[in-house]
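User: Can you help me understand a structure? I only have the sequence.
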Amino acid sequence: MNVMGDMANLFGTGRFAQPSGQPSDQEEAADEAQEAADEAAEEVRLRLAVDGGDVEAMSVLGALLLRRGDFDGAESHLRAATAAGDRAAANNLGVLLHQRGYADEAAGWWRIAAVAGSAAAAHALGRHFRERGDEPAAEYWLCQSAEQGHVLGAYALADLLEHRGDDTGSERWMRAAAERGHREAAYRLARTLDRRAGRRDGGDDEAAALAADEAEQWYRQAAARGHRRGALHLGTILEKRGELKEAGRWYLTSAKDGEARAACALGFLLRDAGDTESAAVWWLRAAQDGDGNAANALGALHAERGETQTAERWYRAAMDAGDDNGAYNLGLLCAEQGRTTQAEQWYRRAAYAGHREASNALAILLLRAGDEAGAEPWFSKAAEAGSVDAAFNLGILHAGRSEERAALRWYERAAAAGHTEAALQVGMARLRGGDEREAERFLRCAAGGGSAEAAYRLATVLDARRPPAPAHELGEPAQEKSECEEWYERAASQGHRRAQVRVGMLAAARGDVVEAARWYREAAEAGSRNGAFNLGLLLAREGSEPEAVMWWRRAADAGHGRAALRLALVFARRGELAEGQRWADLAVSLGPAEVGERAARLRDALRQELSA
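Assistant: Let's start by predicting it. Here is the structure, written out as tokens:
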């Protein structure tokens, strides 16, 4: 499938501003022609000056020819100027000789120029000695160059000191180079500050924040000077801060300069904005440049469209790019198609490479196949690598073996990382152990994470603490809801049947008949026998006995003894003695004991009546 889309629609969305004020092709051609004419005129002027014996003109003409690549024409002029004492010519003569492969002779001329005060020659000489492995000599000459304000000398000195481990000296000279406009120095200084902000040395959050702010400024400087990785990092910072429009502009700048990671990031930004076609364009560009993350994104896009063969091709491309997510995603794709053997193979490949989610998925696959012994080591590997789901799954595994302490240890680990169901399990374990306060803490975490069961259990804990409420009759004004009732309602709204019954009971206690009936009905229709029984009681009290009988039948058929007894009484009162006896027999068998006793007396009375 062609996912290239229309490149123009990237700018048509209005999310990213199209650069303005760019010269046209005709204007650029005219400028180049004018520059060539100016250079030719300058060369004529210089040659005339050289013929007149002008040493400076000899040096400048030699440099011009050197830049053009006319080494033979440049050398004679540079040697003549050097002989006349021009240090710039000596430096350029060194450059010429170095390019011709005469490094030692070049160094000799650089030394002459450097001693004469040429910062550029000192820089070149320092680079020469570093290439030879003579770091002390390299540092001496680079320091001479940097201290004279030579930006390349400052950068090269900073690079040398960083290599040596002198972070303080390196940062000083990297900053000096960056302040003089060196874009790579600005980028590397930003990276240094970024790492410092990430470390938060000594817990000094203020210092870390200052370092992060300064890092952003230097990224911006580097990006403005055309540094594509600087633009990428600046875009990342802005995206995290929520400034998506500006982030997109910097990603776009970096991506156009060939940065695959920026193209990939721009694709995700566009996808989140709903423009999947443009996202596919940039992911394709990044994937073709070897970005595994972009290849995975393309694979996921095609998988969502049902184009599994294309998705598989991109996942394989991600693997070829060294991205282990490709193997994991291939495993997911095969598992969704029921190809469990292939899924296991891909999961194993990613898991052996250290992919924690693949390790967890492989363990689940093995567990479903009945290989518990094979699954446990992979769960452990994933959990130790930080997989919260794997830690929870290990808890389930140990709980299934009745190894409660081991299970609790893994549940606690998962709960500490925010796993909702694990927090519920820890809360339940604390309740069983009698530690109600700790149980409440974990149940609140789980309930806050969306667990209906945790919300219900928390409500029961709070409910048991509150003093008994005064009795109310149906129809009396409702009182303010307590916290426990709010938790019951949260669980009930998530479909928890026992919570729905309890909310109905609390509503009835407040006198809110309509609310009570609503919750009882919702629970009953979801299969709650207590909900059906209580709804029957409410309907009978309101005079709707036929409908009450219907719900009592449903509850009794589901094993509710009290509902069976109610039915026995209804049919006995109607004179349908045989039917009443049948329901009384069921009530005796279902219980509980007090219900069984009443049902037995009623059954015996109905038998006597029938036999009379």
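Now, to help you interpret it: The chain has a mean pLDDT of 89. The two ends are 86 Å apart (CA to CA). Let me know which part you'd like to focus on.
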